[in-house]
Design brief:
The protein is an alpha+beta fold and 353 residues long. The protein contains 5 helices and 21 strands.
Length: 353
Amino acid sequence: MKQTYLNKYILGTALLSVSALFPTAASAYLVTSAPDVGNCIELKIDLSVGSDDGAKKGEVTQIQQFLKSKKLLTSEPNGYFGPATKAAVKKFQTANKLAASGNVGPLTRTLIRKMTCQTPVAAAAPTPVSSTNASDATPIASTSLPSPAPSQATATTVSSPSAGEIITAGQMLNIRWKSKKGIGYDVILEDSKGATQGYIVSSRYELDIFAWKTGQLMKTEGSNSEFVPPGDYRIRIVDARRSAAVTDQVSGVFTIKEKPLNLISILPATAAENSHADIALFGSGFSSLTMVRFDGESSRTVFPTTVSKDGKIMIFTFPESIAVGQHSVDLYNNYANASSTPSNSKDFVVTAQ
């Protein structure tokens, strides 16, 4: 079996080299192409290099057949996800404005289903995020998430969080909704006006609960986690296949509030210039989003190297850019397009070597 996969890998690599010489026009496989309703493809499993039909229930062959029909894959489908298949998936994702990871995740699966099972739909325009998104401090300027159709009915059946609830950022919260047998659900965060912010989690099959670290989400499939700023939000639960027969579920509007930062002490509170010394901060409210700032200037900001699980200790490496003399140190949380209220400040002295 291992030898068979090795042969397939070598064959796939050779075909990748050939296909690179004959690029295909992107317009041939945009989402606006007419759907092949006679061959509806509903992929339910994420696929990547090394996946095969045995472990993925025949879905590798399905994606290969789809890519070949779009003239993106030149080799015959063989049920093994090799480099040639990954390259074809990347072309498809790039042409349809998805993150070109080469992996087949929730967004790619949804798009393929739209193209093969439903009426043609124009690609959704990115939704701008208002001044407000672990994966860990990458801004969410827009998102490629497919939005529910305007005519899609909704039901307020998300029992948690509840309308009006106030939740501290980073707090663990159980999101609860009504589940049906055989249905996979995507859990999406929206602002209070319904603008999509990103995925909380995708493809929760036949499950009705998810433990969420409040504020954390993914901008696109396969991306790192990010955090939204404090504000008013709601949750939408949608069928991962985007079937019109399954009604969306939404929560009431709830509030994510900022977790206060408190800086109690710095140890040591002095360092020699250019020493790259490890400095420990003690206090509360620290997280992977918490930044160390000298003299209140954004140009003198340092990322932490370690944060304790209880958020009470943080370590950073003293940077080269701080001049000899006395300085102030404070903390803030680095949200996308916004920053939190800074903590109280402490004195720090830089000495000459």
